[in-house]
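pasting for ref
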Amino acid sequence: MEIAVALSGGIDSAMAAHLLKEEGHNVWAITMVHHRWTEETLDRVKRVAEILTIPLEVVEVREVFQREVLSPFAEAYARGLTPNPCPLCNRRVKLGILMKRAMAKGADKMATGHYARVVEKDDGPHLIKGKDLRKDQSYFLALLTREQLEHLVLPLGEWTRQEVEVMAKKLGLWEKGLKSSQEICFLQGHYTQLLKEIGIDPGPGPIKDLNGKTLGTHKGYTHYTIGQRRGLGIAAGRPLYIVKIIPQENTVIVGPPEALMAEKVQLSYVHWIHTPPGSPPWKLKVKIRYRHREAPALVKDHGRTISFHTPQRAPTPGQLAVFYEEDEVLGGGQIQEVF
């Protein structure tokens, strides 16, 4: 089988390519270049392809990356949200534009280094958590379509991160400078620097408590996210956390830890890979950010309304809420409001 591997220059995608070669597939690499990538990043990808002795296809995606990833990322922060650009990039660019290019060049499948699994069933492909639950990255693939899953191979899904590291060291890849790729590939520094470069810099504004009393001054609401405690520069005699951001007023609201707890969230849009059986409301588990342990909830209104069985800490507008049934990802959507 001919398989194109999305090569990032990190250890995981490199090991995905290595495992596929070991299985006897005809493997080649594909990578994307956008205006936030450095020459150093591209050189690292080229070095990995040379180490693996596989051809490399470099795809220019500057325009589409700006439109589909960077602009929504910046616009979300301008609206007081905290976006996670990776799921959107995976759907529209990495497994959108890159996958189409790979298929057009003759690839039967495309592979990535994500720790997750695709399992074929009678009704098509299903997205399942990876074997290594501590490293599982199925969350980042929740917006993929069935068609994308049909053409996706995830070689690391049956491996633990520790096993991959051991294998990489035996092959000498670790010593050759291959490490994990950074989570957000287009950020070389703090995200606020990128926002400033494109003109989003709201400047100082008030920090207020839940009663409207001004407690201090922040350096710009885009610097903060829901649940943040450090870096506020206020002394209140007790721990205070950011509980709300009001971009129209350039105001950050703080409160005690209990003010972060919420039982209900509303999603702005919903994408289903597979809808659960039966009629709504559905009893599912929902993960409200990557490092959150998914929690039992009732999901209704076609998935737009989520009511948790117990209050959850700091659901954050802009983040992706992902639906799970056992170990399977059913879909997800962006958090819009928290109640």
